[in-house]
Design brief:
The protein is an alpha+beta fold. It has one domain: Aminopeptidase (3-Layer(aba) Sandwich). Helix 3 crosses helix 6.
């Protein structure tokens, strides 16, 4: 069956395999991590966060499937709803900024361009919501990480805007990307099975007004 990309909703978390299924790196602050009940039902914590985030803001990312099989996913959220960002050395983020959190492609499907398609689809979602930039905290590490590899992020259109020896902050300028990368339109067209937004509806995304400077959890491509 052909691959399908569609907006991600909280129920899709059930498709994510271990160890990511109950990883709450992004969904918990350092205080949460140190608390006695941090090792409770992490999957439930992840679901609660994704549900609240979706109701307040909108789709929590993009998922790629082949029939019932998960091929990969990319998650995104506004900075103000990501508790862990405050502990990273390249913050602060603009509260309304869209932040790419995790990108992952299942092992047999890596190296086929699916990672790039998912990021383009996330960008398509953000452009439709009038978001002008996507930020990300990348990793220079070689092993598995909750942070996307810096090399991958740069390959798909991100540029370093705040250097760091281990976890730099990168940004994809969508106002510029939309002008010179026509495949954003194709990326939007690839998003199938668009799922209605929650009844309450997300908050309108605010524009990023600051100037943009020029310039990879496991391999993604």
């Amino acid at each position: 069956m052909p691959r399908h990309l569609r907006p991600m909703i909280p129920a899709d978390l059930d498709l994510i395999p271990e160890p990511c299924a109950d990883c709450v790196f992004w969904e918990s602050s350092l205080d949460d991590f140190m608390s006695a009940d941090h090792h409770g039902d992490r999957a439930e914590t992840k679901h609660r966060w994704a549900t609240a985030m979706t109701r307040q803001w909108g789709y929590c990312g993009v998922i790629a499937t082949d029939g019932r099989e998960l091929l990969g996913y990319a998650t995104v959220a506004p900075a103000r709803l990501v508790p862990r960002l405050g502990a990273l050395g390249t913050t602060p983020f603009t509260p309304s900024a869209a932040v790419l959190l995790t990108t992952r492609v299942v092992e047999p499907y890596r190296g086929r361009g699916l990672g790039r398609q998912m990021i383009q689809s996330v960008a398509g979602l953000m452009v439709r919501r009038d978001v002008r930039a996507i930020d990300a905290v990348g990793s220079y590490g070689k092993g598995p990480s909750c942070l996307p590899p810096v090399g991958f992020l740069q390959q798909v259109g991100f540029a370093v805007v705040r250097p760091h020896p281990m976890s730099p902050r990168l940004r994809m300028d969508l106002s510029a990307t939309a002008r010179w990368r026509p495949d954003l339109g194709a990326a939007w067209s690839r998003l199938t099975e668009l799922i209605p937004q929650p009844v309450t509806g997300p908050e309108p995304a605010r524009r990023e007004t600051r100037s943009v400077a020029a310039h990879g959890a496991g391999p993604v491509s």
